[in-house]
Design goal:
CATH class of the largest domain in chain B: Mainly Alpha
Structural class of chain C: mainly alpha
Chains: A alpha+beta (176), B alpha+beta (383), C mainly alpha (357)
Largest sheet of chain C: none
Strand order of the largest sheet of chain B: 1-2-3-4
Largest sheet of chain B: 4 strands, antiparallel
Oligomer: heterotrimer
CATH superfamily of the largest domain in chain B: Cytochrome-c3 Hydrogenase, chain B
Order of helices and strands of chain B: EEEEHHHHHEEHHHHHHEEEHHHH
Shape of chain B: globular
Number of domains of chain B: 2
Distance between the termini of chain C: 40 Å
């Protein structure tokens, strides 16, 4: 059983700059912030290394961090620019019984994260859901399309903080 | 939504065969809700199964961001509507971890009794409808007759039969009725021989075994990689139960076994194993209920419910063992009375993804068998 | 006898024929089909720990009347891509096939619809007409599901006719006649003269036949169960997979025809099994008419016994339906070709050997 600090040190040695920091001050969980484009290499190492053996991905969730800059112009409308979208990975090892939390943040204008669907097949549908509801593009995903919303929903990504419902969808009035 | 019906032609040297795309559409008696399965068939053999979900998506996660923490509880009920007590249980445990409050003993025992009764009720639906899909209609009615007794126990406690709003953050909403424990004990004594009756009627019936053994075999490493949990994982041979491996509430005080699939009618991890693990789990739940009834202390059940829930800035991922698998809540709080993000790791959503692997090479009739053994609830898949 | 009765009554041959042939249809078969629908609902309900229809009439007796009234006034939907001539013809064929089989079944010694020497062979041939009707229904509905259901049904009925014929051949070999009327007359006396217990007379061969007769009875009961598409062989109408199979697209009176034809079929095959093995209309214990010296009472008693035995086997069919799950298509075929046919064949050979020696 390893603690998050030990795993952080191990990963820092191996991957260097891709591992950004270890956050321990936010209550309940400690997590490691990593580079979103390198996450598939990191996860490959995590699953195949014998001391770590993280063979199970418990949860993969996308979060809209809502940390953009708010600007109010003269007519009173607030515009949010910038900000990040993050993806949290909750990993577990069924044999060694330790857990790990990873976080990968990307900018909201061009959100791109490497996909781990080839490593843990459970990530396939979770990443499709994160794409559908938040708009995070996962590179190298086998089949990235909407999963919960209708396939031709063009009004954006519902779980974002600045999302507004469209007026009409295929001729039907949306907020009825 | 582009529902393309193409006929792809594959050519052998001599025969030109066409693959047929068959739609087991959103309205179908056996898909347990609004699920659309697109089957690619060659004759009667399945080449590919593509599930299309989202017909029951009610944006639970977006609603939760607009509610306060206690107001989210009726919404969690409606996700897995056949196991509502467990959804509330999972949410309450998660928020209590975030707030770092401890609930009274009596509340813990009440939650365990309700949770295990709910597990039995949920498994009865799963087994009954599975039998009805295979063609044996009578066990379906026997299972529902027994489930009625559990639902009247719930109605006696909180007034509702299916969606309870009973387990609140920090406690439960009402104390038990004064007759509740006696009637629950009667139910346990009544139900034990009924499991034996179900076994005689359905589980060991030769035709049922022929239909389900060796169908939809799930190997163990595929299961772990696909994130399968719950009775499906246990049927593939792994002794993994969150009540013992990552204990929450007071489950470490009870003595019960974890049934594991052993492939005695076919191979380890086939549909019969998944079915029979659920039957055995019902017996173990009866044991837990008996022990809980014997040990339950007196106390005040609403004393620890906070007046206003405003947690510190932070996040927590906590999970419970629901009847369908690992139900996880990932809650991020930003210091206000509304949650910032609630992500539900729904067991049926994860379990459904593996249906393509399980159905390859089987016949159309086996899709129903496999789907029934996965035991999904569409409210959980789509949230 | 009934034909003579009507001839004397009306004085016209044609009228007597017509009434004589319509009589069993209206007095017996249609009312039976109506009762059978209600019987199935009540039998299944009591087996499942519930009550069944209770409101219409005393304990639900008039339920089927209500159902038929409802079905008659429903709109007859024929979708535009359907093949109209085939669509409309299919229920007629199925209905006709099921009901025609009753022509050669002896209800009592005084009445048989048509006294042909080839009785049982005629019945088996006519039930082949039902296959054509089912295929037409499946194809003309313009629906992938119904097509699948109809093809499965056709394969099933055709395959399961073979064990039926083999067992019937066994009986023809023993008794030397194919007419059900003569077969029933041969089993007169008390129940030890029934075919299932070896046949009339008292000889060594009679006792030797008993195990083979029992095996033959089991085989023919199973294969006729498959011919009428009842569980465990009801793949064509598997409700949970194909939503009613080949009669999904039918509504109103046409659906009612399929429905009633199924119950009439059930009785027809029970009647065949009874006539072959259980003494037809003969009573197992002797006749009240004989004890009271009232010879006109005997045909009525025989009719009663025939109905009783037929309904008993229909109830066993219903019992099996609500207890057992459904077999998959390939398992169904495997049961027929790998198990029933070899056993029936061996049965035939051994019985043949015994008759010769």
């Amino acid at each position: 059983m390893k603690t998050t600090e030990e795993i952080f040190n191990l990963l820092k040695e191996k991957f260097g700059d891709s591992i950004i920091e270890l956050k321990t001050d936010i209550p309940i969980e400690q997590f490691i912030v990593v580079n979103p484009l390198e996450i598939d290499k990191i996860c490959n190492f995590l699953i195949s290394d014998n001391d770590l053996a993280f063979d199970s991905l418990m949860n993969l969730s996308g979060v809209d961090d809502a940390n953009g800059e708010k600007k109010t112009d003269e007519s009173g409308n607030t515009q949010t620019t910038g900000g990040t979208l993050s993806v949290f990975y909750h990993l577990e090892s069924t044999s060694l019984r330790h857990k790990l939390v990873l976080k990968a943040s990307t900018s909201i204008e061009n959100p791109e994260v490497s996909s781990v669907a080839e490593i843990w097949r459970v990530a396939d549908w979770h990443e499709r859901e994160a794409y559908d509801l938040l708009g995070i593009k996962f590179l190298n995903h086998p089949d990235l399309r909407r999963i919960l919303m209708p396939y031709d929903w063009e009004a954006g990504h519902p779980l974002r903080k600045d999302y507004k419902n469209p007026e009409y969808y295929q001729g039907m009035k949306v907020p009825y | 939504m582009a529902a393309d019906i193409e006929n792809k032609t594959t050519t052998n040297e001599k025969l030109k065969t066409e693959e047929m795309i068959l739609n087991m559409g959103p309205q179908h008696p056996s898909t347990h809700g609004v699920l659309r399965l697109e089957l690619q068939l060659e004759g009667e053999l399945i080449v590919n199964v593509k599930p299309h979900i989202g017909y029951l998506h009610r944006c639970f996660e977006k609603h939760a961001e607009a509610m306060t923490y206690p107001q989210v509880i009726p919404y969690t009920d409606r996700m897995d509507y056949l196991a509502s007590m467990y959804n509330e249980f999972g949410y309450a445990v998660a928020v209590e971890k975030l707030l770092d409050i401890k609930v009274p003993e009596r509340v813990e025992y009440i939650r365990v009794i309700m949770g295990e009764l709910q597990r039995i009720a949920s498994h009865l639906v799963a087994l009954g409808t599975y039998g009805a899909d295979i063609g044996a209609v009578t066990p379906f009615l026997f299972c529902f007759r027994d489930r009625e007794k559990i639902l009247s126990l719930f109605e006696m406690t909180c007034g509702a039969r299916l969606l309870y709003n009973y387990i609140w953050v920090g406690g439960v909403s009402h104390d038990l009725h004064h007759d509740f424990l006696r009637l629950t004990k009667d139910f346990v004594d009544y139900f034990r021989p009924k499991i034996k009756e179900l076994n005689d009627l359905l589980s060991f019936n030769k035709i049922f075994i022929e239909r389900t053994a060796n169908v939809g075999i799930l190997p163990l490493d595929t299961a772990i990689n696909y994130g399968i949990t719950g009775p499906m994982l246990r049927a593939s041979g792994m002794k993994w139960d969150l009540r013992k491996d990552d204990p929450y509430s007071i489950y470490d005080k009870f003595d019960f076994d974890i049934p594991v699939g052993d492939g005695r009618m076919g191979t380890v991890g086939d549909s019969w194993d998944r079915y029979f693990v659920r039957v055995l789990e019902m017996e173990q739940s009866l044991r837990i209920i008996e022990q809980a009834i014997a040990q339950i202390p007196e106390g005040d059940v609403t004393s620890a419910i906070p007046k206003r829930i405003k947690p510190v800035v932070g996040q927590v991922y906590s999970r419970v063992e629901g009847p369908r698998g690992e139900l996880g809540y990932f809650i991020i709080s930003n210091g206000t009375v509304n949650p910032f993000r609630v992500k539900v790791r729904a067991p049926s959503f994860v379990n459904l993804a593996v249906i393509n692997e399980l159905c390859k090479g089987h016949l159309v009739a086996d899709v129903i068998t496999v789907l029934g053994s996965i035991d999904i609830v569409l409210g959980d898949v789509d949230r | 006898m009934i034909y003579d009765f009507f001839y004397n009554l009306t004085g016209s041959q044609i009228l007597a024929y017509v009434i004589g042939s319509l009589l069993p249809l209206f007095i017996f078969i249609l009312p039976f089909a109506l009762v059978a629908v209600l019987l199935e609902r009540k039998v299944s309900a009591h087996m499942q720990d519930r009550l069944g229809p209770m409101r219409v009439g005393f304990h639900g007796i008039l339920q089927t009347v209500a159902d038929i009234l409802k079905l008659i006034q429903k709109e007859d939907i024929v979708a535009s891509p359907n093949d109209k001539p085939l669509f409309n013809l299919a229920p007629v064929l199925v209905f006709a096939g099921s009901y025609t089989a009753f022509a050669a079944i002896p209800f009592t010694s005084a009445f048989i619809g048509s006294n042909i020497d080839l009785g049982i062979i005629f019945i088996i041939a006519i039930t082949g007409l039902v296959v054509a009707g089912i295929l037409m229904a499946g194809w003309a509905s313009n629906n992938k599901y119904t097509l699948l259901g109809a093809m499965r049904s056709a394969a099933q009925i055709i395959s399961y006719e073979i064990p039926t014929i083999l067992v019937v051949l066994t009986l023809i070999m023993i008794t030397g006649t194919a007419s059900l009327n003569k077969l029933s007359e041969m089993q007169s006396g008390h129940f030890w003269n029934w075919m299932i217990l070896g046949g009339p007379g008292l000889s060594l061969t009679k006792f030797l036949f008993i195990p083979f007769m029992i095996i033959g009875f089991v085989i023919i009961y199973i294969s006729t169960l498959a011919e009428v598409n009842r569980t465990p062989f009801d793949i064509p109408e598997a409700e949970s997979e194909l939503v009613s199979g080949y009669h999904t697209e039918y509504s109103g009176m046409k659906f009612a025809m399929f429905f009633l034809a199924e119950y009439a079929n059930m009785f027809a095959v029970s009647a065949i099994v009874v006539a072959l093995f259980f003494g037809g209309y003969q009573s197992p214990v002797g006749y009240l008419g004989n004890t009271f010296h009232l010879p006109w009472l005997i045909p009525i008693e025989q009719f009663f016994w025939f109905t009783f035995k037929g309904v008993f086997f229909v109830v066993v069919q219903m019992w099996l339906r609500w207890t057992l799950p459904r077999l998959r298509v390939d398992q169904l075929m495997a049961v027929c070709w790998k198990y029933l046919i070899p056993i029936a064949f061996v049965n035939l050979l051994i019985v043949g050997l015994i008759t010769v020696l």
